[in-house]
Design brief:
Layout lengths: L2 H36 L3 H29 L2 H26 L5 H33 L2 H25 L12 H20 L20 H6 L4 H28 L4 H29 L4 H21 L3 H28 L6 H17 L1 H9 L5 H19 L8
Helix pairs in contact: 1-2, 1-3, 1-4, 1-5, 1-6, 2-4, 2-12, 2-13, 3-4, 3-6, 4-12, 5-9, 5-11, 8-9, 8-11, 8-12, 8-13, 8-14, 9-11, 10-11, 10-14
Length: 407
C-alpha cells in the first residue's frame, strides 16, 4: 500500500471509528435516563453493556484465523452491519418498553441480544482494522496512526454524549438517538465500498498466514507483548468502571432530578472525551509518542482523577475527577496498543490485534457490573476499584521488561 493511498485509508478508518464511537458513547450517556424511564434497575442498565461485551471478548479469538486468511475488508463491513442492526433494534426495544408493550426485563433482554450482535461482529471489525494498520506501518508511524485512531474514538465520545440529548425529539422521543446512530452506521457502511483498499492491498498480511503458533495466549505469554497486554487489560477495566458508572454517580450527586442530571452527564462525558482527544491528537504534535512514557504518565493522571472523586463527594469533584482521569486514559490506552504491536513480530500482528480486541470487550464485561453493585453499598466503591486496578497495572509493567522495537 503506497503512503498516499494508506493515508486515505487511515483517514477513513478514523471516520468509521469516530461514527461508531458517537453511537456507542451517545447510547451510554442516555441509558441511565432510558433505564429509569422504562423501569430497569441500575445494575441491569450497566449489565446491558457488560454482558454484551462478553460476546465481544469471547468472539475475538474466533476471528483471528478468519481475518488472517480472508483479509480485513469484509470484517470491517461486518462490524458496521452489527452496529446498524444493534442501534435500530435497541430503538425498537425502547419504544416497546416506553409504550408498556413489554416488561422492563424483556426490554433488557432485547438490549442484551442486540448489543451482543454488535459485540460478535464488532470484535471482527476491530481486529481487521488494527491488523490492516500493522501491515501497512512500522515503528513510530504505527504509534502515530494508532494514537490518531484513538483520537478519532475520543472525538466520537465528545460528539456522542453532546448530540444524543438533542436527538431526543418528537416524534422519536428517547428512541431518537438510536435512530440517528443507525443512519450514521449505514453511511459508514456505504463508505467502505469507496475507501477501503482493493486488490493486493486488501489481501491478508502474508506473515499472518504462517504456520506458527500466533494465538492470543501465545502472544500474551511473550516477553515482547505480554506485559503491555496485561497492563492494557487492567487499565481498560479501570476506565470502563469510570465510564459506565459516572452516569449513576451524577444522577445521585446533582440536584434537580434526572433531566438536570442528564445535562451534567453529557457535559462531563464531553469534557472527558475532549481531554482524551488533547492527549491523543495534541501531545503527539508537541513531543515524540513513546509508548512507555504514555503508559506511565497516563496511569498517574488517571490515579489522580479517581482520588479526587473518591475523597470529595460533590458533583464538581465527580466531574473534575472524571475529566482528569480521561486525560490519563487518553495517553495510556494508545500507548499500550502501540507497545504490544511493536513488541511482536510481523507474524504475530493479527493475534496481537485479537488480544487488543479481547481486552476491549473483557474490560467491560465484569468490572462495571461489580462497580455498579458495590456502588449501591458505598458511594466511593467505583473510584476505589479503579485505583486498585491502576496500581496493579503498574505492577504488570514492572513484572517483566517490555521490548519496544522501532521497526
Amino acid at each position: 500500500m503506497s503512503f498516499t493511498r494508506g493515508r486515505h485509508v487511515f483517514a477513513f478508518l478514523g471516520v468509521v471509528t469516530f461514527l461508531t464511537a458517537i453511537g456507542n458513547l451517545g447510547l451510554v450517556s442516555v441509558m441511565p435516563t432510558i433505564g429509569r424511564a422504562v423501569g430497569m434497575p441500575d445494575y441491569l442498565v450497566a449489565s446491558v453493556f457488560s454482558l454484551s461485551a462478553m460476546t465481544w471478548a469471547v468472539s475475538s479469538p474466533f476471528w483471528t484465523r478468519h481475518v488472517a486468511r480472508a483479509g480485513p475488508n469484509r470484517y470491517i463491513r461486518a462490524g458496521l452491519v452489527g452496529f446498524l442492526l444493534s442501534m435500530a433494534g435497541c430503538g425498537g426495544a425502547v419504544a416497546f418498553g416506553l409504550a408498556g408493550l413489554i416488561t422492563p426485563f424483556a426490554c433488557f433482554l432485547g438490549f442484551f441480544v442486540l448489543r451482543a450482535v454488535f459485540g460478535f461482529l464488532g470484535s471482527a471489525s476491530a481486529i481487521a482494522t488494527q491488523s490492516l494498520i500493522a501491515h501497512a506501518t512500522a515503528g513510530e508511524q504505527r504509534t502515530r496512526v494508532l494514537t490518531g485512531l484513538a483520537g478519532a474514538l475520543s472525538l466520537g465520545t465528545i460528539v456522542g454524549p453532546a448530540v444524543a440529548p438533542f436527538a431526543i425529539v418528537e416524534p422519536f422521543g428517547l428512541t431518537g438517538p438510536m435512530v440517528l446512530f443507525a443512519v450514521l452506521g449505514a453511511l459508514a457502511l456505504a463508505g467502505t465500498y469507496v475507501f477501503l483498499p482493493r486488490g493486493a492491498d486488501a489481501a491478508a498480511p502474508s506473515a499472518a498466514r504462517t504456520g506458527s503458533d500466533n494465538s492470543i495466549l501465545a502472544v500474551w505469554r511473550g516477553r515482547g507483548s505480554g506485559p503491555a497486554l496485561s497492563f492494557g487489560l487492567l487499565l481498560c477495566s479501570a476506565q470502563a468502571i469510570n465510564l459506565y458508572t459516572i452516569g449513576f454517580v451524577l444522577l445521585d450527586r446533582v440536584r434537580g432530578g434526572p433531566l438536570a442530571a442528564q445535562d451534567s452527564i453529557g457535559l462531563t462525558m464531553t469534557l472527558g472525551a475532549a481531554m482524551a482527544l488533547v492527549a491523543q491528537w495534541g501531545l503527539p504534535r508537541i513531543m515524540r509518542p513513546v509508548p512507555m512514557r504514555m503508559m506511565l504518565i497516563g496511569t498517574a493522571l488517571s490515579l489522580v482523577g479517581n482520588l479526587i472523586a473518591l475523597f470529595d463527594s460533590s458533583e464538581l469533584a465527580a466531574s473534575a475527577g472524571f475529566v482528569v482521569a480521561c486525560f490519563g486514559y487518553g495517553q495510556a490506552r494508545p500507548g499500550f496498543s502501540a507497545a504490544a504491536s511493536l513488541g511482536g513480530t510481523d507474524a504475530e500482528q493479527v493475534a496481537i490485534a485479537s488480544a487488543t480486541s479481547f481486552i476491549a470487550g473483557a474490560s467491560i464485561m465484569l468490572p462495571p457490573v461489580v462497580a455498579a453493585a458495590a456502588y449501591e453499598g458505598w458511594a466511593g466503591a467505583p473510584f476505589a476499584l479503579a485505583i486498585g486496578l491502576l496500581v496493579l497495572g503498574i505492577g504488570a509493567l514492572a513484572a517483566g521488561p517490555i521490548v519496544f522495537r522501532e521497526r
